[in-house]
Amino acid sequence: MSDTGGESAHRTLADFTLPSEPGNEREAMEIVAGAVRDLDLPPARLEKLKTAVSEATINAMEHGNKYRPEAPAAIKVVASTKELSVLITDRGGGPIPAPGAEAPDLEARLEGRESPRGWGLFLIRNMVDEMNVTTSEDRHTIELVLRLKGDDDATETV
Amino acid sequence: MPRKQFEANVRYRPGGVAMIDLNGEIDGFAKETLAAAYGEAEKGKPEAILLDFEGVDYINSTGIALIVGLLARARASKRRLLACGLSEHYAEIFEITRLSDFVGVFPDEESALARVANS
Fold first, then answer.
1. CA A45 to chain CA centroid, nearest Å
2. Per-residue pLDDT for A158 more than 70?
3. ipTM, 2 decimals?
4. Exposed / middle / buried, residue A133 (Cβ in 10 Å: 0-12, 13-18, 19+)
5. Which of these ranges, A20-24, B17-21, B77-81, B115-119, has the smallest mean pLDDT?
6. Given an 8 Å threshold on Cβ–Cβ distance, is A106 in contact with B68?
7. Residues 6+ apart with CB under 8 A from A68
8. How far apart are CA A38 and CA A50, in angstroms?
9. How many residue pairs bridge chain A and chain B with CB atoms within 8 Å of each other?
């Protein structure tokens, strides 16, 4: 990625870490919302981004970092003229569920055949245009992508 | 970042409806308060329980799971669960998760109570 000029140049809007503690996803969400303020996202689009960031941060802190405070979640916000990316990285080495996971079976959850939890990845997938997962030996990164041009939502009026 | 303490207050409305006013953030920290409020609402054996989300500004996936748990309790006791006051964003999440297939979603308290009265 380049931080210099041109149509496809990427600008880093935020780059920070947070301790892996329950509730800190809310802070991640608000910091990202502040970082993208100048992009003037339509309000509905911004709310979706905030939910996706919150859920991806919960996944990183809970499943990746097992809520170990010494293993922070790292969050980077990058924008070009065409798209916005939020990269959320944990320090976990275990498997991460596939981005294409099926919709949760609500009936099974209501009947007690499945845990009522596990909505995070499903919500993320429905909130952003792309969700990409990169795994290495000791970390996972979830990339949340919103396209800023060329789709209906991106042209939604405020 | 300071947390807003989650609160839930139960009010008994005409027509056999118990209403739970929710205020704050519905996440894992809300579990005990939400369960206690629901238990209080059940005591009057209402026909329906109405959750008012007007004062809620954040629901995460754990909060969705808590609402699924309340819905399971309501179905087990053959009681209707209704919701009102959801923001457009969270109303959409109720649709995406299919919660709105099982929970009657209304814009406000009046329309929810009117539906119960007319059914």
1. 13
2. no
3. 0.92
4. middle
5. B115-119
6. yes
7. A20, A91
8. 15
9. 71
Cβ–Cβ < 8 Å for B70, B53: no
Q: Does A112 score more than 50 pLDDT?
A: yes
> Residue A99 contacts by C-beta under 8 Å, 6 or more apart in sequence?
A121, A125, A131, A132, A133
First-to-last alpha carbon distance for chain A, in angstroms, is 30
Which are the contacts of A91, defined by CB distance < 8 A and separation ≥ 6? A64, A65, A68, A71, A72, A138, A139
Q: State the pLDDT confidence band at A3, using cuts at 50, 70 and 90.
A: low
**Scanning every residue of chain B, which has its alpha carbon at the shortest distance from the alpha carbon of A119?**
B61
What's the CA gap between B87 and A53, in Å, rounded?
Answer: 19
Eight-state DSSP code of residue B5:
P
Nearest one of A99, A126, A65, A110 to B65, comparing CA atoms: A110
Q: Give the integer Cα–Cα distance in Å for A136 and A56.
A: 17
Test the A interface: residue of B25, B60, B98 with most A CBs within 10 Å: B60
- Say whether residue A54 is in contact with chain B using an 8 A CB cutoff: yes
Contact A98, A43 (CB under 8 A): no
pLDDT, tens only, B57-95: 999 999 999 999 999 999 999 999 999 999 999 999 999
Nearest to A112 by CA among B77, B72, B67: B72
Select from B5, B88, B105 the least CA-distant residue to B52.
B105
Rg (CA), chain A: 16
A48 contacts in chain B (CB < 8 Å): 89
Residue with tokens 């970082």: A35
